[in-house]
């Protein structure tokens, strides 16, 4: 995540914008089992570590952001969790070695493109009310932009700009998706068809610690995974600046090629 911060500082300096960080502020506390696809990632990087989010896309595979895992030596995956400081009933923590992490081969931290990675669990999970995969968008070549549709982002990131540690409880916000054209007025050309933007009106946003976590569009009872938290404004998460996510429909081939997971 440090790489992302440094690279985009230089990129946006001429626009007098602040550096960026991948990062739920002013959100609601999640109920147990409300987001069974949500996972937490405690990432070991040398003698230090970082916290990110991710999404279950099958019994064996997790999708997250490349900037979370590109320097990882290993990761501990929290599944079935709402409170990450406690060992709740139904919560599991699974260690994954570096060999189980697949970072997109064309991930570019300087330009923040292809910010996506996969984690393979050492064994299949048993699904239940607290643990269940999100559904990938159908791979049919006809993909919605989701502009103006409501979507839900969740995670354990900072719950306000005054916070200095990730939230001990899972939180979420439901906000409209912003068109790429409108989002680019904020992000000065960084917005391509490979990312998706969420409005943060009212200061409701992803924040530091939410990186890699899910952006989901609900259709009936189906949770379609449409984004993975990529970056936002480091000046603060409550500044009404659009949050940016990797657009999952742009990576369905890559996901299938590396994990075999597909929705046809």
From TrEMBL:
This is Peptidase S1 domain-containing protein. GO terms for molecular function: serine-type endopeptidase activity. It comes from the Eukaryota. Keywords: Disulfide bond, Hydrolase, Protease, Serine protease, Signal, Zymogen. SMART domains: Tryp_SPc. Pfam families: Trypsin. The gene is Dmoj\GI12385. SUPFAM superfamilies: Trypsin-like serine proteases (SSF50494). PANTHER family: TRYPTASE-RELATED.
